[in-house]
Amino acid sequence: MGRYRSRFDAYIALLLDHPYGYSCQEAATILGVSRQTVAKYNALARSRLGYDLVQRQDGRYCIPDGHRRDVQCTFTLTTQEVHDLLAAARSLDQATDSVRSALAKIAASRGNVTQRDFAMEPAVYYESAVPVPPGVYDQVVQAILNRRTATLTYQPARGAAKTYEFDPYVVLARDGRLYLVGANHNSRRAGHDPIKRLRLDQVQAVRLSTTSFPTPHFDIQAYVAANFGVFATAGPPQQVAGYGGHARVLAPPELRDQVLRHAREILHTYEQDGIKGVDSPVVV
Fold it and tell me: Helix 24-31 crosses helix 2-17 at what angle (to 10 degrees)?
């Protein structure tokens, strides 16, 4: 069985190296197997790779254009590596089918990783991201990788749905949510700071345009530090507020009162924005 798996890998590697593909007989001759065996490889492609091979009019089989950049590799994972991979990957299993597909391929491999390894509860817990509408995560990732401007249909927590013309820079995972950070064309045209973050679970639809945007001069680490982090220059109330709902002041009572007052000021600001119709750069 191990030999069979290795031959399949060799067949796919052969097709990746030759865009026009091979007929079953040609591939069989190169690999030293029967024509029937190559036909079995073609039939197994979907279960092993997640997509079907394309049969050309001349009878040759080839890799679909959209998957020619896929990586075909053989590797070994230790039990600890499997554990850590599972723990991290499960935080995205509600956002994209690709994570489940990748883990299923590893679980179905002929290596020493067992089903028991995949069924175990990790010792490290990552909070799972809030579910994202089907297809949204994958479309957004493609837009980021290819630097394509996208039109987003966004449903905020309150009010009617909005449409944004958006240059997506990065998906940020934070506190159990995924955020899309990028440049909002609407804000840029209005003369405001174009950088906006949107909750990915509130993006209802994504339509990629044919327009590309240049590589942004954007530092995600600096952005997170400025918008989520605790500043060395901030006072104690702001430092506590930087932890969101994950921190509570027990003592002294003076600090507790300061944090409460700070939180009320923030709430008042957002309430005033709602009254004035101000489009805040942070959408929740």
Answer: 120
